[in-house]
Amino acid sequence: MDHDDGRRRCTWVSADPLYVAYHDSEWGVPVHDERKLFEMLTLEGAQAGLSWITILKRREGYRKAFAEFAPEKVARFTPARIEKLLENPGIIRNRAKVESAVTNARAFLALQEMEGGADRFLWSFVGGRPKQNRWSSPADTQAETPESKAMSKELKRRGFSFVGPTVCYAFMQAVGMVNDHATYCFRYPELSR
């Protein structure tokens, strides 16, 4: 999509400034920060069945509600804290998704301990380097891949929830494990270097 600034972007990017900023500065940029990985895994799970802009508009609410995505803090959330979160209009008030964030924080901490870091483990599904796709049309893109299916299966085995293959693939796109910018998008060459 061409925007007022003359840059050509992926077709999924609306004119919403929040969406444009996310696309231009975050989506597809390799992330190795543990807290940021937990944040994106939580947000992608919250997004299941909803539009990404819905989550982006609540992102600050999520950061406040979920202790800036510090997994060691979220893992200690009590049932009473979860009940309070379910009254918070700044997040998606879906019990299963809120409880999943707490469960996933505990599983994330176990993953860090067992694997020497979640970063190394999660990136192992793409061999430690971003996979470079070459999509020229939205019809070429996929919702899941063998790598996202493998990640989903392993995360579920380790106690995570809301981590189906499609959620895992969206996570992989978001944190730069795959470069799924369209080849005509101005970000594609920047992220394929």
Topology, element by element:
Layout: H1 17-25, H2 34-47, H3 52-65, H4 71-74, H5 79-85, H6 95-115, H7 118-123, E1 131-132, H8 146-157, H9 165-174, E2 178-179, H10 187-191
Parallel strand pairs: 1-2
Counting helices, strands and paired strands, the structural category is: mainly alpha
Secondary structure: helix percent = 40-55%
Helix tally equals 10
Number-wise, the strands total 2
The coarse overall form would be globular
CATH-assigned homologous superfamily: Hypothetical protein, domain 2
What are the segments in which pLDDT stays under 50 over at least 5 consecutive residues?
A: none
Radius of gyration: 17 Å
Biggest sheet features = 2 strands, parallel
- How far from one another are the termini? 22 Å
CATH topology: Endonuclease III, domain 1
How are strands sequenced across the largest beta sheet? Answer: 1-2
Number of domains: 1
Describe the structure in your own words.
Helices cover 53% and strands 2% of the residues. Helix 8 packs across helix 9. By secondary structure, the chain is an all-alpha fold. The mean pLDDT is 95. It is globular. The chain has one domain: Hypothetical protein, domain 2 (Endonuclease III, domain 1, Orthogonal Bundle). The protein has a two-stranded parallel sheet.
